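pinned: reference chain
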Amino acid sequence: MATLPVFLNVYAEQQATLARPVHAAPAPLPVPNPTKSFWIDTPGANPLAKEGSLGPLTADADIAIIGSGISGVSAAYHLSRLLAEAGDANKPLKIVVLEARDFCSGATGRNGGHLTAAAFEDFTAHSALFGTDDAKRAIALEQRTVSQIVNLVKQSGNEGALDLVPGGRVNLLFTEPEVVQARIDLEAAKAAGIDVSHVDFLTKEQVEKEYGASYPAFRTPGYNIWPLKLVTHLYNLGKTIGENSSTSSLHLHTNTPVTDIAAISDATSSRRWNLTTPRGPIAASHILHATNAYASHLLPHLRGPSGIVPTRGQIIATRAAVPEQTLTRSAFTGNEGFEYWFPRPLEPGQTNPLVILGGGREATKPTFELYVTDDSTVNPAVGDALRKFLPVVFPGKYEEGKEPEMEWSGIMGFTKTGDPFVGPIIDPSDPTSTAYAGQYISAGFTGHGMPRTFSCAEAVAQMMVADIQGKEWSVPEWLPRHHLTMNRLDE
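pinned: its structure tokens
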């Protein structure tokens, strides 16, 4: 068996690097000239790319959402839905989404396209850190999110338009420590009452027969999707819900970066905050930071390992050397989650699938691309690892030395626990201060946003609506308590 072109069992080393105290500067704004992504730059894929970048600016809003990725747009959708359910057409709220570059041009438009919930993974680690109940909630959050998204897509009949594919996912276990830990996590989850009946452990021989790779694995249900098209669908749904109910209006301004936020001191103003953009100021009562890796640009206390660390990921789109029937439609992950890949649905006239493969950051250890904010370039060492990876894992199914059809990078937002910040903005140096009143965040998904962002955005949308209506917000049972900003002050 050929040697894998990536370092193995280095997740713990990455986490140690991530937690190491450093003097980090706040994140910059996204660079203006990112690499071209398959999801974004395929012709016709991004009809909202330049939406609201010209013409009049929405200068006054009840709610300003900074960021047009899956977090920001999911929040806009949930806000529109919650306001419509409340049914107060006499007080329609104005919601504006602001994006520094083109629509959905950050991590969501650059990721791997997986939509698969954890079944038991990391259960013992989460239990040790946060207790069994919250470890169970972490699983529940992901399973709920995937179920909600899949149901939403199916109800609208858009499975084909959004490339929703139910191929499941195979988690290859390259080393014995990975096998042992997977078994431990599975048994711990089962003992805690989690249903793991949908998990299949596969022997090396079974994997070789079914998929052509000579490693043990476990298989779980899962999906793949075109992330940008999903976000576009959510935006249009939210806008339509608001218009039909007359309870909200949704506006989008791309290429409109927010460079500063300041309190409005004018006592006659009904708004709390002034957002500075190159196109002019925007006054808003409530703000949601859905900026993920770039959160510390406007919230400096979130810089460094106690906050959100920008981390560059890299992906290639490469053509398989065999047809779909031989390759299967399954998605895969391996090497403690560092690598992840799946075959795209065939386009007319194609026989061999295009495979989207991400990972390779281990090639840069000990830095792991942490604190890298430039997605206008790719790392040659990472690219070399990605090019060599699939031909070694699946002998004969990928051509050695073949150049990918596309290669791009994107900036993820990592936290040292791997979990997002969800809730009101709280300055840990002065937790009782009202200096950030009306500002919220949902960010820091650590490269694992697709099965979590939609529900986290719902939770923060509930908080904002409760704030606006002067009501008390109740924590949903499915939301891990350690995600909440008020429970993250000691980090």
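why pinned: The mean pLDDT is 97. The first helix runs from residue 11 to 19.
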